[in-house]
Structure formats: C-alpha cells, structure tokens
Amino acid sequence: MLPKYQTEVPQHFKALFDQLGRQLNGQKDHHFQELRIKGGKNLFDMGFPTTRNEDYKYTALGRVFNKEYQLPDPKQPGPEMMEELRGLFNSEMDSHRICFYNGQLVSELTEVNEKGIGFFRLSDLSDEDLLNGEVLKHMDHTLSQTNNPFLHLNTALCREPLVLVVDKDHRASKPIQVVYHYSANDSDLIANPQFFVIARENSKFSMIEKHTSNPSDREVAVFANVFQRWITEKNANVDHTKIQELSENDFIIHNLIASQEAHSHFYALTADLGSRITRNNLEVHLLDSHTQTDMFGLFIGNANQHIDNQTFLDHAVPHCESREWYKGVLSGKSRGVFNGKVLVRQDAQKTNAFQQNNTLLSSDHARMDSKPQLEIYADDVKCSHGATIGQMDDQILFYLKSRGLDDDQAGELVKVAFLAEVFNSMDEGAIKNTLAGKVLDKLREIQ
C-alpha cells in the first residue's frame, strides 16, 4: 500500500529500469547494482507525490512523470555535438573541466589534472578500494533515510555514478567547471546523473556547475533528475555555485544532500534562470560544532515557468551558524515557491540561524508562495526568519526616469539592485562575473 498522498509510479519507469538492467548486465557484480535495485524497489513502494503532500502543495509534477521517457544513448556524442559542448565552457576561466551529456560523462572534454584532486567512475574502483566502500556506504545510508522518491528514481536509472575527491590539506589552484548539457531529439528523454563529492579535512575548492539544453523549438522534452551527495570534512571549505538555464519546455529536479564536520564551511548558491518546471531539494546536515553554512538562491521567472526551492537545514549540534537568503524576480505568468525549514534540535545550543526569502513581482499575473519555517527545541539560540513579496515601486521608477533612464533601464536597475545581496555573498570573482552576465541577459529578456 502506498503512503498517504502519494500516487503510483507509471509502469513505463519499470520498463526503463528493466532496460537499463539488461544493458548493465556486464556490471551485475558491482555493488552499486545492488543499490540500483534497492532504489527501484523503494521508488515503487513509495510512489510519486501529489499536491496533497505538504512538501509538494504548490508544485504539481504530473506533467513531469507522466511522460514516456527514453534513456540516453550510452555512446559518446558525435563531432558536431562535441564542438557544441566545448563551447559551453567559459573559455576565459582558468579551470578544471568536467562534462556531462544527457547525464553521462564525456571523457574527451573532461580534464581534472591537479595533484590532490581525484576524479573517478565508481565502476573503476575495485571492491577492495576504501573509497569505493566509503561511497557505497554513504549512498546506502542516504537511500535508507530519505523519503524523496526522486533520489530513488535517480539511483534506479543511473548508469554511472561519478566521484570527486579533494585530498586532505589540498587547496585547489583553480575552480572546477562542470557542464551538464541535455538534448532530446525524437522522443522525451530522462537523464539521471549522480555525483559524489568529498572535501577531505582542511581542503578548499570552488565549483561552478551549469545546466543547459537545446532550444525550446522542439516538441519533445528533457527531464533532468540530478542527485549530488557532498561530504565536507573537518576544516574543509567548499564553494558551490549552480546555474540552471534549461530551455523553457524542459524539467529539472536537482537533489543535493550535504553534511558538514567540525569547523567546516559549505557555501551553496543556486541560480535558476530557465526550464518549464524547476524543483530544487537542498538539505544540509551539521554533524559537529563550529560549522558555517551559507545557502543563497537567485531565481528569475518569465512566461509560464515554475520555480520551486525546498531547503532543509539540520542544526543538530551546538555552536553552529547558518545564513539562508533566497531572492527572485517573477514576470509574465511565472510562479515561484520557497519552502525553507531550519530545524534546531534540543542539543543545538548557541545556534545562530538566519533565513530570508524576498520576491519582486514585475507582472500582475506572477505569483509567489513563500513558507519560511523555524522549528526550535533549544532555548539558548539566535534565530530569525522572514519573507517579503512585493511589486515594483512606482516612486522609485519615477525617480530613476527623472534622472534620464528610460522604462527598461529603470526597471533593470531596480531588479539588479534587488538581487545585489545574493551577488555580494560570492567570493570567487570569475564565477561571480559569469553569473552576473547571465542574470543581466535574463532580466533583459523579461523587460
């Protein structure tokens, strides 16, 4: 019997699961295949959520999971697509490069060649390798604990998990640039990339992750169902920026679970500029004291776009700090959702937690649903949360136009100023400049 407020998983997902199993028959002895089977079983036992499920109240996903998708072709892309993929990297940024095409690694365009940073296919690690056992253990624990069906779907349909490790005491000399590109040709396509990232004790690195897809003049859609698991060990410092700019008939569900050990810093910025339906599931677990967690979000919606940010921050130990600030601009008939929860457990004394969501509506038909939450069981804490939803201020626009700006210039300046706090949170200059350019382009589209 399915849990309350869930619906059955369409049978075509079972067909995809069986199809991938036949393709991976040569890897049937690898322990990840046991997790793949576990993910499939959990998915069908759990079902998909309906809007009667509180966490999905404002986001109907029926149009996402009722399509009959095809799995990506396991072959490497051809010369024309290789050239297109190469052009998606920021050539002005000196960086390591990792490339995914339809959720699968493109080896020819992947280059991580710094001593102290390891990048592996999970299937290339032997059963005796300690890293293999560590990764499988974390994955198994995640599948056993989560009630997110899209994590189970990802594991069930993932062909090849990837692992990135930054060694103990290593300070990366340059950022890591990761491109995920999706392309559906004759039929709807589902991609399930899985990425495991470990920042060892006292390490430091930055990553910029970009999701793109082919133009929206095609009839078929892409469903990108991404799962990332991040481990941040003692004194590690991680800076992660994600820019999502899929075409406006595609869907993306991005699932990221991070954990932090003592004196670590985890910074995550999520920027959503594209796709028809976006759902971000971000959760961070603080496992030891004196951690710093920063979760920033930026979203710009237009036309019928739907952007849903779900966050969960688990303060389970004392003496930890967190900042969470999501800001967005919505135009046309777009809709935004923010559902952020900060849990402060009984032992988490001396917690300092800040949570804020602000949205600017530049259209009478745009809509925002905001639900910041604090759940506090400790008494010696400093916690605050809030939300604002408002429209463009006519007086400010009038003032700017009286100084010589036209309507479009005045509106753009107000929106950029509104989003400024998110940009100011960024330390990495090259990544900041990349994001700023894309945000300006998107804002000019919706004038």
Description:
The chain has helices at 11-23, 31-46, 62-65, 79-87, 130-145, 149-157, 394-402, 407-418, 420-424, 429-445, and strands spanning 6-7, 48-49, 96-101, 104-105, 117-121, 162-166, 176-182, 189-191, 194-199, 204-213, 222-232, 237-245, 251-260, 265-272, 277-286, 292-301, 306-315, 321-330, 335-344, 352-361, 367-376, 382-391. With 447 residues, the chain is an alpha/beta fold. It has a domain at 6-288. A hairpin with a 2-residue loop joins β3 (96-101) and β4. α2 (31-46) packs parallel to α5, α2 (31-46) packs across α6 and α7 (394-402) packs across α8 (407-418).
Record keyword descriptors for this entry.
10-stranded mixed β-sheet; alpha/beta
How would you summarize what this structure contains?
By secondary structure, the protein is α/β, with parallel strands linked by helices. Helices cover 25% and strands 37% of the residues. Helix 7 (394-402) packs across helix 8 (407-418).
